[in-house]
Amino acid sequence: MTDPSDSLSLAEQGSGPTDLPPPAPLRIAPQTALFLDFDGTLVEIADHPDDVIVPDTLPEVIASLAQALEGRLALVSGRSIAALEAMLGPLDVAIAGSHGGEFRPAGTDTVAPLAEPLPDRVVAHLSDFASANGNMLVEPKPYSVAVHYRRHPEALKALLTKAEALAHEENLKLKHGKQVVELVMPGSDKGAALTAFMERAEFAGTQPLFLGDDVTDEDAFRVLEGLGGHGVLVGPMRPTAAHRRLPDVAAVHDWLSAALRTHDQSEGN
Ligand SMILES: [Mg+2]
């Protein structure tokens, strides 16, 4: 699902290629490492983050891919790890939640923070603002706080002004995603998460692929350029640091499933 206002502002940001080729078929090979965003990449974006519909087959697809890739797969999401597991069930795959604020390699329950926790006062300030502006949904996370304005587009300008002031006062990063404005602790971004995964033994020497749809995924796309990998933008074309593109969530599922089928055939399963 695309927000026309987001597309417009992004389209105004400058030139670049008018489109990107699709990625080559995914190969289950020793040099393949796969990093996947969640909302807008593996599941369709919903009006409310709790209303996302997770396809029945998705947890199995993720687990099978992680197994086939021998652990060289990680979910990298803006959601907290707890929120992701509430939707997908417990998964023994590597996960970075809260834009990398929470970092959990596979095979452990221990979450290593890549950032300091967000001060409570930031959530309090934004909650006051959201109540006074149509009761926008405020979603506190361990290392960030998101304000969802999908139902209150008229309040966006005031929200951005408020968020910019808070970001300046508290030394936070401001991220403007699809229908969401988020204040994030420094060090907590998807590029930092990807870098931390790639420093681990299981990802050493791999060519990473990262699939993501949103402006917050650009941090990861940019990091990939120095790692010999490729970013795959999911959704309509826009200015991006990705080098490949898949048109929508369904195309992502097809691309992933095709790799599993090919792998199963070659294994003789
Ligand atoms: Mg996303």
What distinguishing features does this structure have?
Rossmann fold, alpha/beta, Alpha-Beta Plaits, eight-stranded mixed beta sheet
Please give a structural write-up.
- The chain has 8 helices and 12 strands.
- The chain is an alpha/beta fold and 269 residues long.
- The chain has 2 domains: 18-115 and 188-267, Rossmann fold (3-Layer(aba) Sandwich), CATH 3.40.50.1000; 120-184, Trehalose-6-phosphate phosphatase related protein, domain 2 (Alpha-Beta Plaits, 2-Layer Sandwich).
- The protein has an 8-stranded mixed sheet, sandwiched between helices. Strands 6-7-9-8 form a 4-stranded antiparallel sheet, covered by helices on one side.
- Strand 10, helix 7 and strand 11 (230-234) form a beta-alpha-beta unit.
- Helix 4 (120-132) runs antiparallel to helix 5 (156-170) and helix 6 packs parallel to helix 7.
- The chain binds magnesium ion.
Strand order of the largest sheet: 5-4-3-2-1-10-11-12
Secondary structural class: alpha/beta
User: What would you report as the Rg, rounded to the nearest angstrom?
Assistant: 18 Å
CATH H-tier superfamily of the largest domain: HAD superfamily/HAD-like
**Tally of DSSP β-strands:** 12
* Percent in strands: 15-25%
Query: What's the total helix number?
Result: 8
Which term fits the overall shape?
globular
Encode the helix/strand succession as letters: HEHEHEEEHEEHEEHEHEEH
What's the mean pLDDT score? Answer: 91
The unique ligands bound to this protein are: magnesium ion
Q: Can you tell me the CATH architecture of the largest domain?
A: 3-Layer(aba) Sandwich
In angstroms, what separates the terminal alpha carbons?
Answer: 36 Å
**What is the CATH topology assignment of the largest domain?**
Rossmann fold
What's the CATH class label of the largest domain? Alpha Beta
For the biggest sheet, the summary is:
8 strands, mixed
Report low-confidence residues grouped into runs of 5 or more: 1-13
Oligomer: single chain
Query: Please, how many domains?
Result: 2
State the helicity in percent bands: 25-40%
